[in-house]
């Protein structure tokens, strides 16, 4: 578990929309990769969930991956990682 507080159901819906639209614009409509790396369960399963969460919160310097901490709490970023690892519903 890389999150402490489960987002509310309404917030989960917002986060899923964010992932599909904003993340999808770089990572691909089906998150199979584009400008950004693929974010499918297959692509992420060997990676450290904590490191993935840090990448979401702080971006990756020198690459187009932006920091999302102005928009996401630590727990929300962690919930997104868990959701990506399971596969988007
Ligand atoms: C402007 C384009 C862009 C947007 C928008 C974007 N990303 Fe990225 N992302 C990238 C790029 C490019 C990389 C690869 C960086 C590198 O070369 O290491 C990346 C890397 C990542 C990684 C690391 C993947 C790995 O295998 O190590 C994760 C996780 C990630 N992004 C999640 C997200 C999430 C979640 C969102 C939406 C909240 C998002 N990204 C939005 C461009 C983007």
Task: Give an overview in words.
The protein has one domain: Cytochrome c-like domain (Cytochrome Bc1 Complex, Chain D, domain 2), CATH 1.10.760.10. With 89 residues, the protein is mostly helical. The protein is 52% helix and 0% strand. The protein has 4 helices and no strands. It is globular and about 30 Å long. The longest helix is centred in the first third of the chain and has 19 residues, at 9-27. Heme C (HEC) binds at residues 18-19, 22-23, 25-27, 35-37, 39, 47, 52, 55-56, 60, 63-66, 68, 80.
Labels describing this entry:
mainly alpha, 4 helices, 89 residues, binds heme C, single chain, Cytochrome Bc1 Complex, Chain D, domain 2
Would you kindly provide a brief summary of this structure?
The chain is 52% helix and 0% strand. It contains four helices and no strands.
Total tally of structural domains: 1
**DSSP E strands, number:** 0
Ligand kinds: heme C
How many alpha or pi helices?
4
Which residues form runs of ≥5 with pLDDT under 50?
none
- Just give the CATH class: Mainly Alpha
Q: What is the chain-wise order of helices and strands?
A: HHHH
In terms of DSSP E residues, the strand content is: under 5%
Distance between the termini: 18 Å
CATH architecture: Orthogonal Bundle
CATH topology: Cytochrome Bc1 Complex, Chain D, domain 2
Label the overall shape: globular
For the largest beta-sheet, the strand count, sense and barrel status come to:
none
Mean pLDDT: 97
Task: Evaluate the radius of gyration.
Answer: 12 Å
The fourth-level CATH homologous superfamily is: Cytochrome c-like domain
């Amino acid at each position: 578990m890389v999150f402490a507080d489960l987002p509310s159901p309404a917030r989960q819906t917002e986060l899923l929309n964010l992932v599909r639209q904003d993340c999808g614009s770089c990572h691909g409509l089906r998150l199979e990769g584009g400008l950004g790396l693929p974010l499918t369960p297959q692509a992420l399963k060997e990676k450290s969930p904590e490191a993935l969460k840090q990448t979401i919160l702080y971006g990756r310097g020198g690459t187009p991956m932006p920091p999302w901490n102005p928009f996401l709490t630590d727990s929300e970023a962690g919930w997104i990682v868990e959701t990506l690892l399971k596969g988007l519903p």
